[in-house]
Structure formats: C-alpha cells, structure tokens
C-alpha cells in the first residue's frame, strides 16, 4: 500500500516536470538569440534547469543523513543520461518536420541518412570542459590522503563549475538579436522552471520512500532507481527542445546538466562530509562516468562532414550502459555487498539492543 501511494506521487511529479519542460523550449531559444550565445552554449541553460533533480537529491540526502542515495543517484545519472538523452533526441528528430513552422535546415537530408546532427562546437564548448570537471572530481575524491568529500572540495567544485559556465557562454558568442517577449510567455517560462524543479524534487522524494519500502541498499537505490527517475525531466526537456528545431541545444543540455551534477549538486554532501565506503564500486562507476562523454565527443568530432550521431552510434551508447550494469553485477557485485552490509547493520542493532 505504501509503495502504491508513493508510486502515485511519483507519477504526478513526473507529469509536473513534463509540463515544466514543455514551457522551456521557446524561452531557451529566445534567450540564446537575444544574448548571442552559440547553439552549443544554449545547452547550458537547459542543463542548469534540468539538473534540479540531482541538486534536490543531494540536498535531501545530506539533510536526512542518507548520503549514499545522493552519491549513487548522481554518479548513476551521469552514466545513464548521455545514452538516454541521445536516444531521446534521435527519436524526437525522426519526425518529418521540426522547428518553427516545421522548417529546419537540412533536416530531411539528415533524417534520410539516419543522422542526429549536432554542431561540432559541442565538443570543445561542452564535452571537453566536462571531462576536465570529471578529472577534477576524481582528483578530489580518489587519492587516499583526501578520499571522500570534505567542505573544501565544495569550494573547489564551485570554482570549477563557474569556469565551465563562463567559457561555455562566451565562446562563439555573437551580437544578440532583437527578440519580442510577451508577458504571458515570461510567466509561463517562470512557471515552467518552478514546475520542473518541484516535479523533480517530489520525484526524488517519492523514489526515496519506495527504495526504503522495498528494503534495498541506499547506494543501489540511488544508482538504479533514483537516477533513472531523476533523469525523466531532462528526457522531457530534451524531447521538446529537439522537436522545436534546437537539436544541438537539446543534445548538449545533457552535458550542461552533468557539469552541474558533478559540481554544484555535490556541494551539500561536501558540507556534511561524505566518506567513500565502497571504493571499488566508486571508481568503476566513475570510470564509466568518464567513458560516456569520451564516446559522446568522439562520435560528434569524427562524424564526417555532417557532425553528429549515426544510427549505430546512437545504439552503441545504451550498449555501453548495459556493459556498466554487467560489470557491476558480475565483478563488483554491489547487490550482494549491499545485502551483507544490511545484515551486518541488523546484527549490530540487535547486539546493541541486547546490551
């Protein structure tokens, strides 16, 4: 009964996030045009809004003393989201007419060639700086002398994100265009951001309750339940932005989101302090976190005259995620370890009760 109630809350929260994402695509396009930002940098706008689930996860996890959920959710979402968003954008752009009034340059040619066309600038503006953020995160958390997350790490991650954001917005910037804003459109944009954030938060909160009711370990709940559900608002945002003709912004928003999740979203855990208890699970997951944007960048950069993702490359990314799951199950075996940890905790509680 408890699971059914929270499942209903989960569905309502996902719908709310869906509504919010739907009202962000046009304001995103107008802001980018008004301020003269490149289409690749436009992904930073969507990414910042779409990262609200991960920020909510870690804030809630830190306040409730369940940091493993936040840690697992953030790392798990960063492995899953790139294949999920690329597949979403590919499916969204299989429609015969996209963009304003169904017009988009060369779209029919790309559709016939089974190509998800993405501006090559997305590699230098988004993917490579994001890989730098991952390297910074690994440097702060993996070496034995300072393993885990401490308050000083939060300040360093904040500086890392600001450096990423500034370079993304300023590179390739041109003179802005005159844009007509309607009052109703502004209010809808504000409501969309609020709905996306609120829907994302309750998505996370209800998923946490479901994880607790099922009785699985927190880290596994974060990796395989909270992370996929928290990615749903970004799926909606990517779908609508890509359908509106802003294909590069829709696809690169996943990198903008990840830049937030690997920096700002970890700050709540740095404030309370977060040790790394399962080092093998942590470094294996972090390795796949880095592998996904590496493949993302390689596929775009070496895509030929029309850069982007071919159909086989779109399919290859989910296959890599399946490999990640197989490695965890067959080698790291976190499910068994989680059960052992749970049994050990129960034993300690029983012993304390006896004493």
Brief overview, please?
With 355 residues, the chain is mainly alpha-helical.
Describe the structure.
This protein is mainly α and 355 residues long. The chain has helices at 2-22, 25-35, 43-50, 52-64, 67-92, 107-112, 121-141, 151-170, 183-214, 218-230, 232-243, 247-261, 267-272, 279-301, 311-332, 334-354, and strands at residues 115-117, 308-310.
Please render the helix and strand layout as text.
Layout: H1 2-22, H2 25-35, H3 43-50, H4 52-64, H5 67-92, H6 107-112, E1 115-117, H7 121-141, H8 151-170, H9 183-214, H10 218-230, H11 232-243, H12 247-261, H13 267-272, H14 279-301, E2 308-310, H15 311-332, H16 334-354
Antiparallel strand pairs: 1-2
Helix pairs in contact: 1-9, 1-11, 3-12, 4-5, 4-9, 5-10, 5-11, 5-12, 5-14, 5-15, 7-8, 7-12, 7-14, 9-10, 11-12, 14-15
């Amino acid at each position: 009964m408890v699971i059914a109630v929270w499942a209903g809350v989960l569905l309502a929260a996902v719908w709310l996030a869906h509504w919010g994402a739907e009202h962000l695509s046009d304001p995103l396009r107008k802001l980018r045009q008004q301020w003269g930002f490149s289409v690749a940098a436009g992904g930073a706008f969507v990414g910042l809004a779409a990262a609200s689930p991960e920020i909510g996860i870690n804030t809630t996890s830190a306040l409730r003393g369940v940091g493993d959920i936040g840690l697992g959710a953030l790392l798990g979402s960063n492995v899953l989201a790139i294949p999920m968003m690329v597949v979403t954008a590919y499916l969204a752009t299989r429609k015969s007419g996209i963009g304003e009034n169904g017009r988009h340059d060369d779209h029919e040619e790309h559709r016939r060639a089974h190509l998800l066309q993405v501006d090559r600038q997305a590699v230098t503006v988004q993917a490579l700086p994001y890989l730098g953020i991952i390297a910074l995160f690994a440097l702060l958390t993996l070496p034995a002398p300072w393993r885990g997350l401490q308050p000083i790490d939060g300040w360093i991650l904040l500086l890392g994100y600001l450096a990423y954001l500034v370079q993304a917005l300023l590179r390739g910037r041109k003179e802005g265009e005159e844009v007509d804003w309607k009052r109703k459109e502004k209010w809808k944009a504000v409501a969309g951001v609020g709905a996306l954030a609120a829907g994302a938060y309750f998505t996370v909160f209800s998923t946490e309750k479901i994880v607790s009711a099922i009785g699985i370990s927190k880290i596994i709940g974060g990796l395989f339940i909270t992370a996929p559900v928290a990615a749903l608002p970004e799926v909606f945002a990517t779908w609508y932005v890509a359908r509106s003709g802003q294909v590069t912004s829709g696809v690169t928003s996943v990198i903008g989101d990840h830049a937030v999740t690997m920096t700002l979203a970890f700050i709540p855990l740095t404030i309370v302090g977060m040790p790394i208890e399962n080092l093998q699970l942590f470094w294996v997951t972090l390795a796949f976190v880095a592998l996904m944007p590496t493949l993302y960048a390689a596929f775009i950069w070496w895509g030929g005259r029309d850069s982007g993702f071919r159909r086989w490359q779109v399919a290859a990314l989910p296959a890599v995620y399946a490999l990640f799951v197989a490695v965890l199950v067959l080698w790291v075996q976190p499910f068994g370890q989680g059960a052992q940890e749970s049994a050990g905790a129960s034993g300690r509680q029983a012993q304390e009760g006896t004493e």
